[in-house]
Design goal:
By secondary structure, the protein is of the alpha+beta class. The chain is about 30% helix and about 20% strand. It contains one helix and five strands, in the order βββββα.
Length: about 120
């Protein structure tokens, strides 16, 4: 039972007065605040120009340039953080590929129009 666990599910150290329990908001595992176990840099936010929520790992690519007005920082365990980092990298690569494709199609279209 994750709620009643007495030990961090990452490092195995016992929770107590100086080591508080925290839940990973992604997988639900109970972890300590130690940097090797969890971090609080998962940012959920509402972009100024959108009604759809977005997410980023604070300090990495995809983080808004200025602090969003509507935001929430959540704790994630190291394993989920690594998975989210990989997912964000794939997302950014897809966006980059889409831009390159649009640019290529624009150049091709301009080339056909000039013939």
């Amino acid at each position: 039972d994750k709620v009643n666990t007495k030990f961090c599910m990452r490092c195995g150290r016992e929770f107590g007065f100086l080591r508080a329990k925290h839940h990973c908001k992604v997988c639900g595992d109970v972890v300590c605040k130690d940097k090797i176990c969890s971090s609080e840099d998962l940012l959920l936010f509402l972009p100024e120009d959108s009604k759809d929520a977005s997410w980023a790992l604070y300090g990495l690519e995809g983080t808004p340039e200025k602090e969003p007005r509507v935001r929430l920082y959540l704790r994630s365990c190291v394993r989920c953080h690594e998975n989210l980092q990989s997912l964000k990298a794939k997302e950014m690569q897809c966006v980059e590929d889409e831009v390159k494709t649009e640019q290529r199609l624009t150049v091709e279209k301009q080339g056909q129009g000039g013939s």
